[in-house]
Amino acid sequence: MPVKELLKPIKIYRLIGLLMTYVMGAALANYVEGMRSWLVFWTGAAFLSCALFGFYYMQALQRVNDEKLKPQGMSLAELKQIRLGLALIAATMLTVAFTIIVGWMFEGLLWQGLIILLVVIFMVGTVLILKGTSEKLQPFLPLLESILVVIIPPALGFFLQTQQMYRFLTMVVMGFVPFYLAFILLRQLIRFGEDQRKDIPTAVTAMGWEAAMVLHNTLILFGYLLLALAALLGLPWNTVWPAFLTAPLGLLEIWLMERVRRGQKPLWRIMQVAMGAVFLLPAYLLTLAFWIH
């Protein structure tokens, strides 16, 4: 069985991103009220990882059955092995996720806000599984991914530790959605030629490469603008300002993308590192600020 195909749904950046934003949500809960339980914190991280990657493995299982997206040059027997492997991994991860929910139920942790969030998680996951290979939905998959990787994890980390609603959570989360969308656009721009050749619909193929570059740069600026707006609306400046230390990296990414748009040779590897840092480093710095204040 080709192991490489079984590891494809586990994107390292996606995994680091969702865990980083989850920890940021827990750190915010610690900042406003204090941590309820470290055991709950770790079970939350396990649930999040298992549930989300269970969804992604189910999506990968759907993709294997798509003529455009399935692995090329493999025999029917190998494809059957891949399908079986993907199905077993997805079933195992989702079973662990449901087991953790049952444990929370017996411990009395499932209050109204957390229940609503869990329903949203499985609704979005179901859409991702059932419609993940739909050509009409493909251009909108970055939005679904941003919900699963950027919005849900910090909310889960927060609501597992406190039963109070704070506007700080919304302020913090929304600033990172544009950063993550910009990273996804960058990845799709790198694959643009291949996706266009194979007629695979993506957000970039739908809007065009030049418009995608402009949107990518706009999203970076918009992310920092939302963080600044959060500070103006009441999020303490001593927790927000470290995130702006990464602004030079954002400007570097914009400059590198403009070079590509003007016809110069793309420095994709450097751009991926810069864009990854633009998303992860502010999350880390905000998390650190919440813990130490």
Largest beta sheet, briefly? Answer: none
The rounded Rg comes to: 20 Å
Q: Quick check: average pLDDT?
A: 85
Query: Strand-residue fraction?
Result: under 5%
Taken in chain order, the helices and strands follow as HHHHHHHHHHHHHH
Which residue ranges are poorly predicted, with pLDDT under 50 across at least 5 consecutive positions? none
Figure out the total of helices.
14
Outline, from the CA principal axes?
Answer: flat
The number of strands is 0
For the record, give the distance between the C-alpha atoms at the N and C termini, rounded to a whole number.
Answer: 50 Å
Q: From the helix content, strand content and strand pairing, which structural class follows?
A: mainly alpha
Q: Fraction of residues in helices?
A: over 70%
What labels describe this entry?
single chain; 293 residues; 0% strand
Produce the secondary structure layout.
Layout: H1 3-7, H2 12-32, H3 38-64, H4 76-107, H5 112-131, H6 141-159, H7 167-174, H8 176-190, H9 192-197, H10 203-207, H11 209-232, H12 237-240, H13 247-261, H14 268-292
